[in-house]
Every structure is written in C-alpha cells, then in structure tokens.
Amino acid sequence: MDPMPPETQQTLVEKTLSLAMQHHRAGDLAKAEGLYRQVLQNDPNHPVGLHLLGVLAHQVGDNGVAVDLITKALSLKPDYVDAHNDLGLIHKACGRLQEAMTSYHKALSLNPDNAYSHYNLGIVLQDLEQSDDAIFHYQRAIELMPGFVEAHYNLGIVLKELGRLEEAVSQYQVCIKINPNNDEVFNNLGATLQELGRVEEAVESLTKAIQINPLNAEAHNNLGSALQKSGQLDEATERYREAINLQPENATAYNNLGSALHERRRFPEAIANYLRAIDINPGYAEAFNNLGFVQSECGRTEDAMQSFHKAIQLKPDFVEANYDLGNVLLRMGRHQEGLEYKRKGKGVIEFKNDNGRHFTIRGGPEGEGA
C-alpha cells in the first residue's frame, strides 16, 4: 500500500484533534483521550495534542503525567500561551505556588492582555499574601474583561481582608449585577456589610444567600451573627444551630452559639458550646478566651485562669485574654501579676463572637482603674 501523502496525514491529524476537543468539551474524557493518543501516534511532537492530553491527565488526577506532557509541548512550542497558563494551574493545584507564578509570568510576557493569566496570577499572589500585587492583576483582568465575575469576586475578598470594606462591597455588588444567583457573593457581601455596621442590609443579604442555597452553613452562621448584633437572640441561636446541623464540625458556629447563650446567661450551655468548639479546633484562642470569661462569671476562677493562659499561649498578643486574666489575678489579690497582664490589654475591650457581636464592654487600663 502506498504511504499516505503528508498533506493527507496532516489533515487526518487535525480532524482527529478537532473531534477529540469536541469530546473533551462535552466531558467525554475517555473518548477524548483515545483520540488525543491517535493524534500523537501519528505525530508524537504535536504540541497541541501533548498540551490537551496533559490537561486531561490533570482532570483525572494524574498531575505528574500532566506536567510532563505540557512541559514537552512547551519545549516544542515555547510561545504557547495556553500551555504556560495550564501548567500554572496544575502547579497551583499541587501547591507549588512559585512554579505556578513563573508559568503565569511567562504567559503574560507572551501576551500581556490575557485576562485569564492575570486572574490566575492574582489567585497565586493572594495565596502568597502579596495583596497589592494580587489586586493589580485582578483589576487588570477586569479591565481586559469587564464582565469577569470571578475576578470581581476575588478582588472583593482581598479588599475585605485589607479592611477596604466599602471597596469590597462595590465589587460584590458588581458580581450580583452580573449573576444574581450566587449565594457565596451574597454571603460575603452580608459579612462585609456587618463589619461596616450596616446590620439591616447584612441581614437582607445573608437571608438572600440562604434563599439561594439553604445548605450554606457559613451564611447561616453569619446571619446568626447579624441577628445577634441586632438583639434578636432567639433567631440568632436558631441560625447557629442550623449551621451546626449542616456542618457538625463548624467550630466557629459553636463558639458563636456559645456567645449567644452566654448573653442570655445560660452559662452551662455556653460553656458546653465553647468546649465543643475547642474540641474541634484545639488552637482556637478566641474560644478559650470566651470560655475563660464565662467560667470567671460562674466563680470558677482556677478554670478561668487556665483558659485565659491557654488563649495567650496560642496567641501571645491577644489583648482581651491578657486583660481578662489580669482582672482575675487582681480579684485573687495577685496585684503585681494582674497589673502586668492588664497593661497588655490596651484601650477599650469588648467581649465578642467571631463575627464582631459585642455585648459586654469593659474599659481597658486607660478606661478603668486597676
């Protein structure tokens, strides 16, 4: 049989590749893999075939093979932007953030206007806590693709972490205009509004998050905090319990439920919930401090001291715990130690749950005499 002319063989390879990509996009990975391998049997150095088979390998969890295939594709075609970008995604998925950053920088050096590369680089920089650089790349992604909802959302998260709350709110509101059915956006918006003291708006946003997704445990917990802040303790308790029902290992919800029960002076139940939070998360300094405070109110001085010491051990600069321990020591007549701890508690101290609910205000050493 006469050999197939090169032009005909190349046409067959491209048709096979096109069919493989159709199956890949449709989610039929087995058929796509078989066709990609046919492409590589005919042309072992086909960079697109290597790249896309590598992407498929990543999708089925074989990241080592994925890296090898895409690296080979790039050795054959160093200016292959999509391959650099996908290699970055795989490195990121494997926790190799520096390698991921290198891949995204290479992609951007070849195409500075690739919105996805800017976005993906922003994610890595956010994980590396390089917030200003992450903001730059998210903003650049949005400039290049104004409807890039994921970039708006992640930008909102970084801005919130930096305390730029009004700017974060604006980003979440843009996300809602683009997609009004994302419960996570409403949840984050509600939490941010609560930090701004806009409690009624927070309740509205968090309620919307739960309407969209009744199984969102974090939204239930955040709504509980907002309701507690507005004095609706029964409703807040109900939300915290629902968060725990949905997510039984949610230490934050147990701590917050403890704070609501503490406010209602249901001390044994509050203690039980703080202990459960600590059982789930033994490094939970805030729960130890809250536990110490209610133990102190119950007259369990030695237990309270142990809890405050543990909170300080976990978080040495924990102002509230230092101050509370100082008060306990002063009541025991250990004045020198007490004053030393109280000096570490500066300004006005507020007993609070994780979401900022303040219900007992005590002056710090500048506002209350020893």
By DSSP, the count of extended strands is: 2
Strand content is: under 5%
H and E string: HHHHHHHHHHHHHHHHHHHHEE
Runs in which pLDDT lies below 50 for 5 or more consecutive residues are: 347-352, 356-370
Structural class by helix and strand composition: mainly alpha
Biggest sheet character: 2 strands, antiparallel
Question: What is the CA-based Rg, rounded?
Answer: 28 Å
| Shape verdict | elongated
N-end to C-end Cα span? 101 Å
Q: How large is the count of helical segments? A: 20
For the biggest β-sheet, the strand order reads 1-2
* Average pLDDT metric: 90
Overall helicity: over 70%
Characterization of the model:
There is one protein chain. The chain has 370 residues and is mainly α. Helix content is 74%, strand content 3%. It is built from 20 helices and two strands. It has helices at 6-25, 29-42, 47-59, 63-76, 81-93, 97-110, 115-127, 131-144, 149-161, 165-178, 183-195, 199-212, 217-229, 233-246, 251-263, 267-280, 285-297, 301-314, 319-331, 335-343, and strands at 348-352, 358-363. A two-stranded antiparallel ribbon has the order 1-2. Helix 8 runs antiparallel to helix 9 (149-161), helix 11 (183-195) packs parallel to helix 13 and helix 15 (251-263) packs antiparallel against helix 16 (267-280). The model is unreliable at 347-352 and 356-370 (pLDDT under 50).
